[in-house]
Design a protein that fits this description.
alpha/beta, Rossmann fold, 9-stranded mixed beta sheet, 10 helices
Length: about 280
């Protein structure tokens, strides 16, 4: 394990067979928060969020299978595989329940975690969540590009992909590192992740979301070019009691562009949904 600016890094081998790289910070006795990044990212996706979190929380930012410095197996990249990794990660650290924060496609895995392992999820926070079976023009175009993608993956392709998600400018150094992290994905992971996890979810999945009983907050950037507001409203309507909050002047990657807003919204949500102990 090594440490940078109060954030520690290590790897752990899970019962699912995957070895994941992760970042960790905060009070190890505190309430756990698990962050799940989106397509082609890594723990670094939350590098602007982690330093802003109150120190009393115990935060983990996972680098999911196939990404960053985690294992890149030939299979398997379904939504259930990613959810099982989160459950196994919690087992490995003795975490009974956690708040799960997912961004973009990571929000799919957060939802799946809440459906398959409801006893493990205290709250859900979904940042610019990818919605079931929403294959828009951008995703269809990406699918076509990936059919001919070969190793080594071209840096220009990765940079264009990452820049397409941003509306409000982010620091150049941050963007360069995000691109470097995405370049760690082999071509087969770019393809398998999209086909098996992102595009395999059907509209019927919305019916399942009605079974989620964890308090849920949806954060969506008003300038998100990937997933429109009507899809976010549909998602909020499907999850019982979910709250949709719009981040003005922000694009798809609100946690990149406006990390201070995301942390403030997260803190407020955690406080509003906190269960007070019963008086004796």
């Amino acid at each position: 394990m090594h440490e940078t600016n109060g954030v520690e890094f290590a790897t752990t081998h899970l019962a699912t067979g995957a070895t994941l790289h992760y970042a960790e910070c905060g009070d190890r006795a505190g309430e756990a928060i698990i962050f799940l990044h989106g397509y082609s990212d890594s723990w670094f996706s939350f590098s602007r969020v982690l330093p802003l979190l109150p120190p009393e929380y115990h935060a983990f930012a996972l680098t999911q299978r196939g990404h960053g410095d985690s294992d890149k197996p030939k299979c398997c990249y379904t939504v259930d595989d990613f959810a099982a990794d989160v459950d196994a990660f919690m087992d490995a650290f003795g975490i009974e329940r956690a708040n799960v924060v997912g961004a973009s496609t990571g929000a799919l895995f957060a939802q799946r975690e809440a459906l398959r392992y409801p006893h493990r999820v205290s709250r859900l926070v979904l940042i610019a969540p990818q919605t079931p079976a929403h294959e828009n023009e951008a995703l269809s175009g990406l699918r076509e590009e990936l059919r001919t993608l070969k190793d080594p993956v071209p840096p220009g392709f990765v940079r264009e992909f990452q820049e397409s998600t941003i509306y409000h400018p982010v620091p150049q150094e941050f963007l360069d590192t995000a691109v470097a992290e995405s370049l760690k994905l082999p071509a087969h992971v770019w393809r398998d992740y999209l086909e098996q996890a992102v595009l395999s979810i059907h509209h019927d999945y919305v019916v399942e979301l009605r079974e989620i009983d964890a308090p849920t907050l949806i954060l969506w950037g008003a300038q998100d070019a990937l997933f429109p507001r009507e899809e976010q409203e549909r998602l909020a309507a499907a999850i019982p009691g979910a709250t949709l909050k719009v981040c003005p002047e922000s694009g798809h990657a609100a946690h990149w562009e406006r990390p201070e807003w995301v942390v403030q919204d997260l803190e407020e949500f955690m406080e509003q949904t906190r269960v007070l102990p019963r008086s004796s």
